[in-house]
Structures are given as C-alpha cells and as structure tokens.
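Fold Annotation — chain and its backbone
Next Lines — sequence and tokenised fold

***
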Amino acid sequence: VKKAFQAALPIGTTIEFDPYRHRHDGIEFDPETVQDQNKWLRGDVMKTLRTKRNFAPITQVNTFCLDYSRSMTHDLMRDLFKVVFLLVMGLEGRRSYDAIHFFGSDFYEVVGFNEGQVFTNRSVLFRVLRNISDVHTHRVIYGGVGGTNISAAVDKSHEKLKAFTEELSQQHPEMNYVSSLFVLTDGQPTIGIFDLEELGAFIEGKRHDGDIAIKGIYLKPPMEKSDFMTRIFGAEHAVCHIYISDAAVE
C-alpha cells in the first residue's frame, strides 16, 4: 500500500546550477578552476551546484475504488477496510481531497469530492464501514454482492476525478496538485472489459487523459499466485498479495 501510494507522489527536491556560480570557484566554463588543482582538492567545485527544495504545497486528489463483488468474502472485506483505514489515517495530515467508490455489478459513490470541498478526515471511515458490514448478534459480518466490473469502476471514477481537478484548477489556478486513482480488488473482471490486455490498454489511455496515476492493489493472501494485476495495471503500477493480519494492524 505504501509503495503504491508513494509512487503517485511527485519528488520535491531538485538540483540546479547556482545562478552566481561565476562569482565563485565554479568549474563550469571557468578555465582558472581547471588549472588550479588545490580548488579540486578543497572541493570548491561543488559550489557550482545547490539543492533546491520545492516548498510549494502539493494538494493530493485521490479516488479509491473498492471491490464490492460477491467474491469479497468476510475476511477479504475486513482486509479491504483495514487498507482503507490505514490510507485515510495517513491522509489526515495532508492537503488531500479524496473520494471513495464501490464497484461490483453496479457503481456506488460513497464519499464524493463536492461535499464541502474539505480535506480528508477519519469521519469517512464509518460511511465505508456501514456499506460493507451487517451487525448480527455479538458479531459483524462483512461481504459484497454481484460481479467485478473494473472497467466501469475506472471509467466512472476517472470521469469524476477529472471533473473535480478541472474545477479546482479554475477556482485555484495557483494550486499544485497530483491526481491518483487506486483500485482495490480481489479478482479478475467478470463484467465489462474482461480481456486483460484490452483492459490494460483502456486503463493506459485513461492515465493520459488528465494526467492521472492509476494504481492497482491486489487483496489476496501471500500464497495466492497470479499475475493478472500486473497485466491490467502494469508491473510498475500494481501492488500484489496484500494481506493484513490482526497482529500486523495492532
């Protein structure tokens, strides 16, 4: 989860030439430096470079697409909620707008972008929880229904994400933001585009429409072997075999 999340964030540190390098002992186009070995030994040539940190605040705009199909059994759905819990708690301290959607045979918007345009906080967790659980005597049962329509989930979530970022750009033209779409699923598509190569090409096209990072997170125990997530999302955009035990969460 951490790997998938960090891969969508920009690097905030750059190296550049000092604009006043010719007033120092810089080597760039400075023949005296080349002839003076002592300057090399003292490391004065390093004055030509300086590290610049990008302190401009980066606003994150994320959509989390959660698999709500019938294959999401009690244990898998509990793990899905744990992943969402960790992500939301990690986003609380950031400048982050986040939407949460469910997908199965149908598409459900659980937490939308335009609800007051406030940054993410833990209050959204209960809204997710009450959609995936039923309270019975002395226990809570988790689970989903229907098929697995990944293409519709990406298509509809991408449309909402792109519309919201365009609205942000119009209202706050000075804003720096990065957009990401995360798909959390336990299995291959059974509805919509179910050919893996075709679905992969569809997702790649969506990445370039609005410059949106699209990542896949595979919710399966480690012993479950499959490469379908990397075939759909690409090896650099997929995290496979996510399994969270109770001990790990504690």
User: Anything to note?
Assistant: The beta strands are 13-17, 49-53, 58-67, 96-103, 107-111, 133-136, 139-142, 176-185, 212-219, 238-242.
